[in-house]
Design a protein that fits this description.
- A hairpin with a 2-residue loop joins strand 2 and strand 3 (40-42).
- The chain is of the alpha/beta class.
- The chain has a six-stranded mixed β-sheet, sandwiched between helices.
- The chain contains five helices and six strands.
- It is globular.
- The protein starts with a strand and ends with a helix.
- The chain has one domain (4-103, 120-131): 3-Layer(aba) Sandwich (Rossmann fold), CATH 3.40.50.
- The protein binds guanosine-5'-triphosphate and magnesium ion.
């Protein structure tokens, strides 16, 4: 089974995306610790916001096949340091979330993800079911 780890700022939509991919009801639940559900490893935003947790992210990534850097389309800045992706010895993709919200900026989000070292980028909206099938395919096809 392909395992994908989601990394991104608090509130960027990782847990909601996890629920959408797994076909669960979308309910808000603050992520308090790294959570392992099926093929998705959901991490709390605090782990990318505080450098002292980087090691925890890196060690969790060793059990994963794919790392996804998650960027909210409406966020005016990026939490990812330049070339952050190179910390992981795994394939890294970028996911833009909340593309349904008016006033978001896809090209800005894409630029942030490229700076972070993610080249393949998936645009998504958990609310509008956009990009969810593409992400499910990553989980199945990348075996
Ligand atoms: N409009 C819209 N809102 C979204 C979308 N995805 C998530 N949200 C909202 O964004 C808020 C935060 O979502 P979460 O999925 O909890 O964010 P998270 O990245 O898991 O946050 P932490 O667990 O704190 O790291 C919630 O109120 C969601 O309803 C989306 O695709 N569209
Ligand atoms: Mg969460």
């Amino acid at each position: 089974m392909v395992k994908m780890m989601l990394v991104g700022k608090t509130g960027c939509g990782k847990t909601t995306l996890t629920q959408a991919i797994l076909g669960e009801e979308l309910t808000y639940k603050k992520t308090q610790a790294i959570s392992y559900c099926d093929s998705i490893v959901d991490t709390p935003g605090e782990y990318i916001e505080n450098r002292r947790y980087y090691n925890a992210l890196i060690s969790s990534s060793s059990k994963c096949d794919l790392i996804a850097l998650v960027q909210d389309a409406t966020a005016q800045n990026s939490i990812f340091p330049p070339k952050f992706a190179s910390l992981f010895k795994k394939k890294v993709i970028g996911i833009i979330t909340k593309t349904d919200i008016e006033g978001g900026n896809l090209s800005r989000a894409e630029k942030f993800l490229h700076w972070a070292g993610a080249n393949e980028i998936v645009e998504s909206s958990s609310m509008m079911n956009i990009g969810i099938d593409t992400l499910r395919k990553y989980l199945i096809l990348e075996n």
